[in-house]
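Example 9 (inverse folding). The structure is encoded as follows.
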């Protein structure tokens, strides 16, 4: 069954159950269905069937989540826009997608866009039956960091999402119940949010969100203690922040805990598992371009690791992994190379970006079939048990708090205010083993407040360097390139 048909059934069958807990308040599935129906009417009155993409200001409220489902039931895609990001960046996204309409519970003003709330009506009949979906219809477009200084769009189709949902549920190992209480800690501009709201809604479970302005790890701690959450989807950095509280966390009710969005280290994971002793724990891996998760590994007492990083496991059903060299030739078992991914979850391609598509996607014959592969940028190898081990990044792309960042984009904006100064952005691990950005400048120390002010006007907060360091000159390797590894080693020792 297609997931939208399942959504229709779930909404109908769970009217009397709680659907959301947002900002200390519960909302039922009946409340949710009414809100969806109101928004659908606003869309039907204002948006022509030919307009397939609508902007969505990603607030933390029932209206915003209902907007996602309303758009899907109308066979339309949403483009989430974070209201706390710089206006210029958000306008770039609006311009790139040629959005004409925006849904926003806060009723803001947007350049060249009509706010759909103006046609919003208070009383409408319940309307939660999906419209027919065409094969190539999009479900959402997420924008990630781009190396040219502009964000790049990743469209995901309904067929991509259907393939993903089928892959996760393929063996019955992951099955939510209406009684489950599920954490949703992610910004809606981050693809892990889709997992955190979609699976609970398909199962009639309740979703507990984390307010944007809350201290995330502490709010999660309170939800665990006060509301006895049973399903957790986390980025690894959260348990590093929670580590001082491990002795206080007793959560035997947790049934599932999944990780993704960064390297997962064995030692701290084993410590965390003691806090949730009855839970199945998974390490998932996958780029936004391949619809959230591409592979998974079940955590056990004897996890496979490399450099203490837990394996990313085996590809999900119908997903193909290969390890390639710089010429896209497949490498043999055990050799380190770039992970390339193929399968039905793969994006149609970057939004209106032919140059990036040619550089990132390629076709190759594999086991008698011509498959379209995506070059992930992850350095990996496959071991003798056919589990994949993560080594690091091929390029200069890193993850901060689960968000993927092109270091070159950080450098691009920093150089705007330091035009005659050599600088480089690197990622380091602090003492909590969380990744932080450091801007290293080849210069005598000077006041960098203008650089930081400018960057804050152009970039979201997770792309702002946490530290700025000065060197007289950069170290170089044998090839004459700046030696980033030496810089990391140098500043890893200095950063608390």
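The amino acid assigned to each position is listed next.
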């Amino acid at each position: 069954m297609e997931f939208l048909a399942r959504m229709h059934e779930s909404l109908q069958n769970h009217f009397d159950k709680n659907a959301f807990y947002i900002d200390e308040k519960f909302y039922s599935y009946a409340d949710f269905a009414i809100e969806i129906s109101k928004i659908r009417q606003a869309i039907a009155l204002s948006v022509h069937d030919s307009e397939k993409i609508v902007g969505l200001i990603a607030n933390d409220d029932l209206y915003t989540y209902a907007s996602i489902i309303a758009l899907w039931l109308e066979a339309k895609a949403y483009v989430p826009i974070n209201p706390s990001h710089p206006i210029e960046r958000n306008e770039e996204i609006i311009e790139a997608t040629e959005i004409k309409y925006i849904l926003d519970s806060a009723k803001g003003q947007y350049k060249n866009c009509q706010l759909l709330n103006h046609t919003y009506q208070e009383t409408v009949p319940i309307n939660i039956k999906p419209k027919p979906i065409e094969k190539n219809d999009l479900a959402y477009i997420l924008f990630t960091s781009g190396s040219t200084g502009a964000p790049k769009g990743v469209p995901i189709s309904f067929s991509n999402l259907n393939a993903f949902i089928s892959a996760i549920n393929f063996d019955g190992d992951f099955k939510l119940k209406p009684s489950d209480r599920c954490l949703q800690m992610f910004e809606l501009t981050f693809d892990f949010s889709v997992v955190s709201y979609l699976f609970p809604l398909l199962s009639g479970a309740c979703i507990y969100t984390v307010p944007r302005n809350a201290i995330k790890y502490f709010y999660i701690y309170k939800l665990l203690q006060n509301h006895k959450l049973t399903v957790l989807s986390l980025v690894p950095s959260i348990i590093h922040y929670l580590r001082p509280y491990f002795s206080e966390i007793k959560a035997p009710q947790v049934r599932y805990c999944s990780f993704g969005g960064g390297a997962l280290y064995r030692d701290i994971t084993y410590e965390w598992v003691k806090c949730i002793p009855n839970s199945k724990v998974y390490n998932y891996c996958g780029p936004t371009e391949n619809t959230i998760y591409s592979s998974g590994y079940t955590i056990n007492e004897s996890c496979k690791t490399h450099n203490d990083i837990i394996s990313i496991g085996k590809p999900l059903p119908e997903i193909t992994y290969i390890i390639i060299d710089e010429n896209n030739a497949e490498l043999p078992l055990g050799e380190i190379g770039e992970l390339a991914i193929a399968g039905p979850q793969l994006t149609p391609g970057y939004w209106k970006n032919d140059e990036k598509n040619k550089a990132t996607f390629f076709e190759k014959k594999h086991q008698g079939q011509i498959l379209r592969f995506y070059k992930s940028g992850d350095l990996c190898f496959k071991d003798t048990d056919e589990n994949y081990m993560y080594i690091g990044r091929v390029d200069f792309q890193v993850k901060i708090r689960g968000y993927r960042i092109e270091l070159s984009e950080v450098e691009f904006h920093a150089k705007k205010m330091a035009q005659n100064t050599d600088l480089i952005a690197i990622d380091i691990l602090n003492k909590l083993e969380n990744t932080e950005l450091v801007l290293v400048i080849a210069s005598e120390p000077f006041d960098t407040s203008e650089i930081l002010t400018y960057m804050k006007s152009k970039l979201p907060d997770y792309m702002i360097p946490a530290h700025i360091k000065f060197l007289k000159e950069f170290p170089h390797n044998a090839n004459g390139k700046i030696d980033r590894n030496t810089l990391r080693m140098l500043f890893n020792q200095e950063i608390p």
